[in-house]
Write a structure and sequence with these properties.
- By secondary structure, this protein is an alpha+beta fold.
- It has one domain.
- Helix content is 41%, strand content 17%.
- The protein has 3 helices and 5 strands.
- β1 and β2 form a beta hairpin.
- The radius of gyration is 14 Å and the shape is globular.
Length: 101
C-alpha cells in the first residue's frame, strides 16, 4: 500500500464511527460539495454517486474497488450532514440531498 498521507479523519464519531484516510475523505468531500446543488430540488443519492464516480473514477490508487466510491460517499455524506454542510431534504421521496453552505 502506498503511503497516502496516513492521517485519518474520524467520521461520525461514536461507537459506530469510521476512520478514513484524510486524502480519501477530502477527495469525496470535495466531490460532494462540488456536485451537490443548494437548490430546493437537490439530488437523489444515486445521482450524486454517479457524478462522484465520474469525477473520481480515474483515482484507482484511492478507490480500487468498484463499490468503494459509493461506500465512501455515504460515510462522508453522513459526516457532512452532522457538520451541517449538507442536508436531507425533508419529506422528499425518494430521499434527496442538498448543500447548505
Amino acid at each position: 500500500m502506498k503511503n497516502q498521507s496516513m492521517s485519518t479523519v474520524n467520521v461520525t464519531p461514536g461507537a459506530n464511527g469510521f476512520k478514513v484516510t484524510k486524502v480519501k475523505y477530502d477527495c469525496i468531500r470535495d466531490a460532494i460539495l462540488t456536485n451537490l446543488p443548494s437548490s430546493k430540488e437537490g439530488l437523489k443519492f444515486n445521482e450524486l454517486v454517479s457524478r462522484i464516480k465520474r469525477d473520481v473514477g480515474s483515482r484507482k490508487d484511492l478507490f480500487p474497488k468498484a463499490g468503494s466510491v459509493m461506500w465512501y460517499t455515504k460515510v462522508v455524506q453522513l459526516d457532512l450532514e452532522k457538520r451541517k454542510l449538507i442536508e436531507r431534504i425533508p419529506e422528499a421521496v425518494p430521499r434527496r440531498l442538498r448543500r447548505l453552505k
